[in-house]
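Section 5: illustrative case.
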């Protein structure tokens, strides 16, 4: 389990660096509330992005399939909590991005999907 958490942290750091190179500022790593977590929260101008990071060393299945409808619901609920706690509803527009990383060591492929899903994608 320790190895998996290290991989996850390394993946999140790699995605954070990419976002910073693209002009974003990282506000939060691993924002948690009961029932949900968001890996990265970043801002650029008036845009707030909630980023789900998924890392796999081997390709047993498509990484895109990991972000299920129930996972999306949890991310959206957690994002709403974040927005409410900071009173950001009227300050920022926001979107949900997904970063998929696959590989090991120096051979890691990053696929970044901006606006990967939205609140309308989930059946409540």
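Designed sequence:
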């Amino acid at each position: 389990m320790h190895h998996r958490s290290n991989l996850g942290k390394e993946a999140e750091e790699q995605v954070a660096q990419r976002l910073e190179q693209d002009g974003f500022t990282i506000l939060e790593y691993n924002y948690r509330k009961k029932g949900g977590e968001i890996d990265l929260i970043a801002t650029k101008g008036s845009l707030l992005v909630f980023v789900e990071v998924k890392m796999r060393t081997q390709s047993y299945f498509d990484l895109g399939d990991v972000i299920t409808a129930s996972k999306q619901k949890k991310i959206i609920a957690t994002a709403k909590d974040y927005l409410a706690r900071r009173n950001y509803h009227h300050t920022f527009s926001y979107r949900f991005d997904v970063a998929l990383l696959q590989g090991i060591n120096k051979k890691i492929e990053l696929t970044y999907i901006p606006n990967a899903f939205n609140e309308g994608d989930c059946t409540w």
